[in-house]
Amino acid sequence: NAGVTQTPKFQVLKTGQSMTLQCAQDMNHNSMYWYRQDPGMGLRLIYYSASEGTTDKGEVPNGYNVSRLNKREFSLRLESAAPSQTSVYFCASRPQGARETQYFGPGTRLLVL
Amino acid sequence: GQSLEQPSEVTAVEGAIVQINCTYQTSGFYGLSWYQQHDGGAPTFLSYNALDGLEETGRFSSFLSRSDSYGYLLLQELQMKDSASYFCAVRDAGNFNKFYFGSGTKLNVKP
User: Fold this and answer.
1) CA of A56 vs chain B CAs: smallest distance (Å)
2) Residue A98's pLDDT is what?
3) Selected residue with higher pLDDT from A100 and A81
4) With pLDDT > 70 as the criterion, what percentage of chain B qualifies?
């Protein structure tokens, strides 16, 4: 049971490049989330998916798109990266019924030059 | 919207007790959660208060007062491994899938 996995662990992009961050969970959880974490700002919700086939915007969705490919996988895409998107990105999942407990992946550290 | 305020940093000595506060302004929420994050690591869930009062989990306790818009995390018998950042979080009552986190408190435990 690997929990929540994320790839890649580190990435350097140039401004304007695109990339997709991958997230997968093997705990059969319904809800999945993408957060970004910047120094001194805590975690901010980018997008979430309450169940397979649904996605919704969070607090800071601009510049991002997501896909809930199936129950296991939830990807985050940056179409045209900007330096302001330099951050640590965390994916999380939450089982139905365990209302507050989110399980986080190890994070992807992204630097946009 | 939701706004959660925490002190940025707290320092305490090994074996002591420390309290990390969280004050909030919300338009409605289900309860207050706490997460721990070590440097370079992922956040991990610690505790949750749905109702007012104290919840105890081993050396950690968490408290919520909705009337005061205030909560805290209490860590007893501090150990060096407790050095980490601690975040409070709420789940939006208007959209139960949306979570909001405080900016975090970095706890430094000294020998």
Assistant:
1) 9
2) 62
3) A81
4) 99
Residue A85 dihedral angles phi and psi, to the nearest 5°: -95, 5
In this complex, is the C-beta atom of A2 within 8 Å of any C-beta atom belonging to chain B?
A: no
What mean pLDDT do residues A17-39 have? 95
Shortest distance, CA B81 to any CA of chain A (angstroms): 19
Q: In Å, how far are A10, A62, A66, B21, B77 from B86, measured between CA atoms?
A: 24, 27, 28, 10, 17
Q: What is the per-residue pLDDT for B95?
A: 81
Contacting residues for B81 by C-beta, under 8 A, at least 6 apart: none
Look at residues A96, A100, A32 and name the one whose alpha carbon lies nearest to residue A66.
A32
| Dist CA A35 CA A42 (whole Å) | 10
B42 and A107 within 8 Å at the Cβ level: the answer is yes
Residue A30 is predicted with a pLDDT of 92
Of A11, A37, A19, nearest in space to A91 by CA: A37
Lowest mean pLDDT among A20-34, A63-77, B16-30: B16-30
Question: Contact at 8 Å (CB) between B62 and B48?
Answer: yes
Q: Do B102 and A107 touch (CB under 8 A)?
A: no
The residues facing A71 across adjacent strands are none
